[in-house]
Amino acid sequence: MNDHLVADRAAAAEPAAPAAETIRRPASDSQAGIWFVDQYATDATVYNSPISLTVRSRLDAALLRRALRHVVARHESLRTTFALAGDTVMQHIHAEPRTWWQAVRARDDADLARLERELAGTRFDLGEGPLLRALCVDTGRDETRLLVNVHHAVFDGLSWDIFLTEWLTAYQDLAAGRPPGAGSPARQFRDFQDWHGERLSGPAYDKSLAYWKDKLAGAPPLLALPLDAPRPPVQSFQGADEPVPLTAETARDLRARARQEGVTPLMLLLAAYAVFLHRHTGQQDLLVGVPASLRDRAEAQSLIGHLVNTVVLRHRVSGDLTVRELLAQVKDEVVTSMRHRAPAFEKVVEAVNPGRSTGHAPIFQTMVTLIPKGGARYRRLGLDVDAWRHLGGAAKYDLVLILEEHEDRLDACFEYDTALFRPQTVRAFARRFGTLLRGMLADPDPDPDAAVADLPLLTETEERDLLAAWRTERDDKAVRETVAALFERQVRRTPDRVAVEFADRTLTYRELNEQANRLARALRARGAGVGTRVALFLDRGLETIVGLLAVLKTGACYVPVDPAYPRDRIEFMLADSRAGLVVTRGAPACRVPPGAAVFDLDAELPAARSLPGDDLSTGKSPGDEIYLIYTSGSTGRPKGVVINDVTIANLVHRQRDLSGPHADARTLQYMSLSFDVSAQEIFGTLCAGGTLVPADAELRTDLHRLVAFVDERRIARLYLPYIALHQIATIVARDRTPLRHLVEVYTTGEQLVVTPQLREMFAACTDAALLNIYGPSESHLCTAHRLPDDPWSWPEAPPIGRTVPNVRLLVLDERGRPVPPGVSGELYVGGPILSPGYNGLPEQTRARFAADPFDRAPGARLYRTGDLVRQSADGVFTYLGRADDQVKIRGYRIEPAEIEAALNDLGFVDASAVVAVECGPGDRRLVAYLVAARRVPEAELRRRLGAVLPDYMVPWRFVHLDALPTTPSGKIDRRALPDPPEPGGGSAPSSAPGTAASSPTQRRIRDIWAGLLGHGDIGLDDDFFALGGHSVLAVGLSQALREEFGIDVPLRTLLSTPTVAGMADCVQRARTDGGAGRTDDDLASVLRGDARLPARITTAGVERAAPADGVRHVLLTGATGFLGGYLLRSLLAAGCVVHCLVRAEDERQARERIMANARRYLLADHLDLSRVHVVPGDLTRERFGMDARRYAALAGRIDAVHHTAAHINFAAPYASVKPANVDGFVRIVEFCAERVLKPLHYTSTLAVFSPRRAAGVITEDSVPDEPRGLGIGYAQSKWVAERLALAARERGVPVTVYRIGRVGGDSVTGACRADDFFWLQLKSFVRLGLAPDDPGRPVDLLPADVVADMVTGLSRTPRAENRTLHVFHPRGLDWSTVFEVIRGQGYALRTVPADAWLDALAADGGDDGRSLAALVPLFREGAMELGDHVYANTATGDVLRSVGMDFPEADAAWVASMIRHFRAAGELPAAPGSPASAAR
Fold it and tell me: Is the domain of 242 the same as that of 381?
């Protein structure tokens, strides 16, 4: 299955002489690329290559170590490190072999898994080495487990068998008493570089580079797999893997089918994967990376090193392509691509210059890799060895298909980025890939001419489950009564309530019903009745509502005709509808078609008033027509959509479901009667007892007046198209207009885009809920989504929600088959609410309405909406756009809503619309239309959008308009937007390429660029990478800027603004205000905004649970953390039953996490598990991710809550820790007020007080009122949470806040968090042998077990409830005592000035990612400062003593026990003179 092509096998040359001293030579291009990623990536483990090998016998660890040293001595790659010299990455080949080796024992399989994870997560230092680590694990069974991790810069996949064979061979030699390695001298990576270097220049190399530039021109830059989460701005590289179920029979069929088709098995697998990607993305142009071995020569077959490159396969897949055609295409693609594999992928990226993003890999985001494995060579050594197994860890790409070829089977797994996919999603991917592959190999006689689109994708179970989930939720109430009957029933309930209020006139329900009955009798006398149609040609007003109800009471169908429409359109609608009556006020301003009569209300109403006002029998059934509404038609003429009574009756019931207790709300009638949402406004209100308040035409267009009208008329419910909602939000947010009575706002008709103005309106000006609803004219309401209470958490493009009863929604592909959850497809609507079709248009009706192939019920139909959606695994739909008008630019699928949200985020933009225009064959470009307070140069617009959008989403042109054109229904009329002017007209022009730098900063940056790039033709807006810059030069540029301007421009900032102008702005901001980010005032505004407790949280009518001293059932968060583990022990010791909320998929996993944490801190033997109840859930999700029943049951059972969970990371920004530390706190408060009132015990920190606060004594009663100056995200999040705690107290939730000082290790064992700040300080002192001469105030340390016992004791006395308490040592240990403890443990230590200590700390860099080195910039910036505050806890001491506790005497033994604990765990080196625990 190895598709490696051997070009030539030259005669063997002499191997390089062994290195006698360190040799320095340039790294290969591939190695340089890996080095750059290692310097830049957020996860330095991305190029780790960890494996596990099982030998089924006990091996001698000492001999294994000697054998390993022998192999490292033989191969220079295993003795190589890397460093940057100028702008060149250099290999440093060391003479002395160094190994990292440990022999350990695993207590059980869980312990073994921990060892595997820890080794796989090794953070190699490419500058220090060694770049190989080995662990010999005694599992307690008759076997030896070898865990090895090596960095990819010095290794490739084919090196594993060479390395393992040599290692085990050397071991067998040593075990037999023979010296190892009597064979020939090893070939070295230097030899390969010399051979391969000949290929990296000359015509053949140039031809290969040209091949890649041509092949990848115009390629799609991003793979559109269905993600579970938005792509983060910076790639996380956090990975996991999921096995693909393949049987031995599948492997046999694969080989047989490949032989039959004349391809290799790998080619067939690549073809199957291309189909898999096509079916999940809808993309026809797909880029897939594959490794390509460079071991062409015989000498290279035994060489260890990085002898591999990456090539890109470009598959073009369409549904009508046959399998045989695809296989031929893939074969040609593989063979041709492999011929051109010599240029390093990094050089291909530079040549193609696809544009860089920190959020994903360039060119391709998925890969297929084949690892050939053979066990025969190990058996020849006399060892029973399992094939080595790759250990998952970091993920370089979104999704990687890893194939492992064994002699008798094929193993496969998906490696995936956990920031993008949930495990269950990839598990489904794996099942579907297996299904698709088996479909390609179908036996007997697979059809090679079968179309790709016909191959199976869903498993039978998955398709069955999908169809079951799509079954209609029946509600027979809607099919039993007509809308007229529903209204009349409401009249009987509330006859004297005001039904309609217009201007200064009102009608009660009784009055409205009587007037409608009289008019209905008059209309019936003129021929109106079941089976007829009546046109309502009326302006807004009371008479319109009366007339509408009157038509319903006759049994006729109403046809709304807007008098504002053009005359030709009105006349077409009257004629096409065949309306028998046209209801008007006065003579109609148009011709009435023959056969139609005019019913003039002005003339007819006086006589009608004398008719009886009681209800009349209509003879109408739910299946009869209720209205005919005209929409735009694809033929250019209006198209009439017929809707039956049952559809609107269902709408009435669904509105009651959505509004609940607010169903009878005062509702503004904003929509035109010609817009179908008007039926929801009118009937959803009048059939529920509400008051309908129509807005006149002038008010609808004067939004300032409308905002005032909404408040003055006490409007509680609004229905608005998006553009009107956004414009109203702009006014309300700008003027801070309170909308005191508003309860619900519904938006529909087009994609909802959440703007800052919307967030501000709903956060600061109203407590109303925002609901995004969806339904085409052919079915009315289909889905609804109520946005969360916190507007700052809303996504920019919210989903449209879940299916409502009596509606059936299916998502199908172009062949009409169900698509998997998360995959884009066309939405089909079914159910009893469906329109009969289009009036007088049978062909269009047949084109859009068809029999439901998945429903056997007689007459079941589906309507094809033309809307693209995706449905999540939990049934939530998201609207993606139109199937027939998809916007694609340069291969990217683009949602204009996202660009519009970014534009609307600019303070001066009031509204915007983005469309794609054709500028030539295949050349589509984005144009943005703006309504803005001022005209802004295009260069500034592009720059500001470039800060939040990728370059392909920045519009080509910007056109300023006075107003956006809208349709009569209020939607943006995109067809009415003017053509964009030619470049040079319209908006202020941007600087063209080559525009000269103007400021001194710009000129100096341009000169630095010129020096690095080797030419001076550089414009202000030229892209650094477009001019030939690359990743290593970017590092040099960052260094040059630091030296030139005395500031540190982060590399990520450079990559996000790679122009002279952009860099100059960054430098200027860094020089003037210390950074390029938002100001301290901006952040303070965000924090204060987040400190508002949602209005939904109330304790009204909620009774108190047990008193403090009677608490038995406790909910504990953070039980898998350090202090939480000890708190669990203390609560159990106090006799509590502890319910532990743990983020886990099930109870088993949750319990495993709790026990793993307990073992980590040596607590496992002290927990009474019979009183530990695990609760799998997620603190940040609604109801903790539980269903309503389980959540309510838990809320009713718990007596008190201890909330100690927190995301503690001093380097993480506020946005990263907010979900756990702020949003999670709100969820906890909400839980405390659910069913019974539960006291909350919240673990906070002393760090909530800003250093800008005036120096003084901070007591338990001090309130953290100033967020500015809090330098780290963790402290900022805890400040917000404390403010929320104060708000919760005001709402009646008892909240006891425990501000904790430094938490030390266990007072007996010393067990502590490895990333605890105080411990990291101690660790740095020991590693460096240095400490700052003035570390600050005494250490207010308390051991974790003491803190937990105190919190538990305080929580059980009424004296502490609803107070803030300070839990830290009041006197503490002075630093000189701490230093003496370190020296007493055998470590040399001297004090130096703080700057010298920071310099040494930065240079040391740490050894394993758990180091203070990463915080050096924060130390230097003062972000870690706590100010000159003095903290007091006298009141806390008084409460402690009242329950028989007190602060213990500070004990230096606490520090000593921590050092001993971490030394035993390998976190510290052995003290000089003591035996080393690991070899050097």
Answer: yes
Tens digit of pLDDT for each residue in 696-755? 877 887 788 899 999 999 999 999 988 789 889 988 988 889 999 999 999 987 788 898
Residue 370 belongs to domain with CATH number: 3.30.559.30
Q: Any idea what the CATH number is for the domain that residue 69 is in?
A: 3.30.559.10
Which secondary structure element, helix H or strand E, spans residue 1381, and what is its range?
helix 1375-1384
The angle formed by the CA atoms of residues 514, 520 and 522, to the nearest 5 degrees, is: 110
As a 3-state breakdown, the chain gives helix, strand, coil percent values, each rounded to 5, of 40, 20, 40
Average pLDDT, stretch 1185-1203? 89
DSSP letter string over 810-854? EEE-TTS-BPPTTS-EEEEEESTT---EETT-HHHHHHHEEE-TT
Percent of the chain with pLDDT over 90: 46
Q: What is the dihedral of CA 1242, 1247, 1252, 1256, to 10 degrees?
A: 90
> What's the pLDDT at 1421?
47
Give the pLDDT confidence score for residue 739 in this predicted structure: 95
DSSP 706-722: HHHHHHHTT--EEEEEH
Tokens of 1244: 């906070």
Query: Is 1447 strand, coil or helix?
Result: coil
pLDDT value of residue 1408: 46
Mean pLDDT of the 617-643 span: 83
Q: pTM of this prediction? A: 0.62
β-pair type (717-721, 692-694): unpaired
Tell me how crowded residue 918 is: count the other CB atoms within 10 A of its CB: 9
Using CB atoms within 10 Å of the CB of residue 1336, give its burial: 0 to 12 exposed, 13 to 18 middle, 19+ buried.
Answer: exposed
885 — pLDDT class (breaks 50, 70, 90): very low
Looking at the structure, do residues 445 and 470 belong to the same domain, yes or no?
no
φ, ψ (nearest 5 deg) of residue 516:
-65, -40
**Domain contains 188:** yes
| CATH number, position 893 | 3.30.300.30
- Cα separation, 410 vs 250, in Å, equals 8
Q: What are phi and psi of 1136, to 5 degrees?
A: -80, 155
Q: How many domains does the chain have?
A: 5
What's the CATH number where 1032 sits? 1.10.1200.10
Dihedral over Cα of 822, 828, 832, 834: its sign:
positive
Positions of E strands within 358-487: 366-372, 389-390, 399-405, 410-417
In a domain, 65, yes or no: yes
Q: What is the CATH number of the domain that holds 870?
A: 2.30.38.10
Same domain, 974 and 1015: no
End position of a domain, from candidates 1077, 1109, 1127 = 1077
Residue after which a domain boundary falls, among 1055, 1077, 1099: 1077
Residue 625 has pLDDT above 70, yes or no: yes
**Phi/psi of residue 1403, nearest 5 degrees:** -70, -35
pLDDT, tens digit (0-9, with 9 covering 90-100), for 1422-1457: 544 555 688 899 999 999 999 899 999 988 888 888
Interval 1200-1224 mean pLDDT: 81
* Model confidence at 466: pLDDT above 60: yes
Residues 261 and 365 placed together within one structural domain of the fold = yes
DSSP assigned state of 1097? -
**CA dist., res. 245 & res. 301, Å (int):** 32
Note whether 395 and 441 are same-domain residues: yes
Domain that holds residue 841: 458-474+811-886
Residue 294 falls within a domain, yes or no?
yes
Q: Do 895 and 860 fall into the same domain?
A: no
Same domain, residue pair 87 and 126: yes
Q: Are strands 366-372 and 399-405 parallel, antiparallel or unpaired?
A: parallel
Residues 191 and 229 in one domain: no
Residue 1260 belongs to some domain of the structure: no
Instruction: Extract the tokens encoding 807.
Output: 């509606």
Would you say how long the chain is, in residues? Answer: 1480
Question: Can you read off the two tokens belonging to residue 1079?
Answer: 């100001």
